[in-house]
Design brief:
This protein has about 375 residues and is an alpha+beta fold. It folds into two domains: about 180 residues, BirA Bifunctional Protein, domain 2, CATH 3.30.930; about 170 residues, no CATH class. It has twelve helices and eleven strands. β7 and β8 form a beta hairpin. α7 crosses α8. It is globular. The C terminus is likely disordered.
């Protein structure tokens, strides 16, 4: 499946000044651009859908007023517009007109057809042709804010990739979906979790995050399946995997009806999804490989193998794995804390439950 390069890693416009500056930058109308003679785009390579292309900022501000959406410099978190871009590989020698046509089709399909004004411009000042989009955060008909989910981004990248292949731009696509730097992702906290963290308290989601990180760091876990299996064996955390979606069930946290609560990895943070775990495992083994602690898979005994494997790549030998596990056990005291909890819970609930609950839930109030 081909995927094109759709970049959404931009800060949104949260003030009128930032909105106008972004529009001017896209069109090459900033003072410093004009003075330096930089030409970002040209006539026929930029336009707007839903409003005037040369007065985009004022146009979407009027739309906000008509829909009762207030904005003020005193409301720092009010998002007025979102940014996005698509880019082509230099080796494809994409001409500006074709890039504009693809961008116009893309904007109509994913933005304007859903009721949002959008300004876009083909930039011609670099070797790789790319297109910038500025998207109003207010729907023209309903006033609702613009939303772009992970699934939407996947569809955008897939759609753009197909368009590239239709024009023969084979260098501008990749086989795998990619969107952002996983190493920069942070834990996703609800308001309640954030308040608990301020008080120094820990939610059941924090406990899940901690044990998942422990198993990812464990050098004995080579694959995603290894991590899932170890979570059950070591912490009694049940995991349900459906395609690329993974959910975790805390062994002792129950809802008000007494039922076990499951939480998707995406709600814990991107690093706790299947993609995030596989990314961390790849990065871990790359670091081990650089340190010279690996040997070929075929050199180890069959009895050492854990989980499923395709027989490719390298894995740490027994000595390195044992030493690394000791390092994991000392990681902020996580291992000892949960080992103690497991032993205590097993003693207290063995008769009633029949199995250990490794991740403890001692607080009366938990944040979901």
């Amino acid at each position: 499946m081909p995927f094109g390069n759709v970049n959404v890693d931009y800060a949104p416009c949260k003030s009128v000044g930032a909105l106008k500056a972004s529009a001017d930058y896209m069109l090459g109308q900033k003072k410093e651009q004009i003075e330096s003679g930089v030409r970002k785009t040209s006539e026929g390579l930029y336009t707007a859908l839903g409003c005037n292309r040369d007065n985009f900022a004022n146009g979407i501000l009027v739309t906000r007023k008509l829909n009762g959406k207030s904005y003020s410099k005193h409301k720092a978190n009010t998002i007025l517009a979102h940014k996005m871009s698509i880019s082509f590989h230099p080796l494809d020698n994409v001409d500006h007109k074709t890039a504009f046509e693809i961008a116009q089709d893309f904007a109509e399909h994913f933005i304007h057809s859903k009721g949002y004004e959008v300004l876009f411009a083909v930039h011609t000042d670099t070797d790789h042709i790319h297109v910038h989009f500025l998207i109003s955060n207010c729907n023209m008909e309903t006033g609702k804010s613009y939303r772009r989910s992970q699934h939407d981004l996947y569809e955008m990248s897939e759609y753009f990739g197909k368009k590239c292949l239709e024009h023969g731009f084979t260098n501008s696509v990749r086989e795998g979906f990619y969107n952002h730097d996983m190493s920069r992702q942070k834990d996703k906290l609800t308001f309640g979790e954030a308040q608990m963290k301020k008080r120094g308290a820990e939610s059941f989601k924090d406990e899940l995050r901690e044990v998942i990180r422990i198993e990812i760091t464990d050098p004995n876990n080579r694959t995603f399946d290894d991590v899932i299996r170890s979570l059950k064996e070591h912490y009694n955390v049940e995991c349900r995997v459906a395609g690329n979606t993974v959910s975790y069930r805390h062994p002792q946290y129950l809802d008000k009806n007494g039922k076990s609560v499951s939480v998707r990895g995406s709600r814990l943070g991107d690093l706790y999804t299947r993609k995030g775990i596989e990314y961390e495992l790849t990065k871990k083994y790359r670091e081990y490989s650089t340190a010279g602690t690996f040997r070929a898979v075929g050199e180890r005994d069959e009895t050492e193998s854990r989980g499923t494997s395709d027989g490719r790549g390298q894995v740490p030998d027994r000595t390195a794995a044992r030493n690394s596990r000791q390092d994991v056990r000392g990681l902020d005291g996580f291992y000892e804390r949960y080992a103690d909890r497991a032993a205590e819970d097993e003693r207290e609930s063995a008769a009633a439950v029949g199995h250990p609950g490794a991740v403890s839930s001692k607080r009366k109030k938990r944040c979901r």
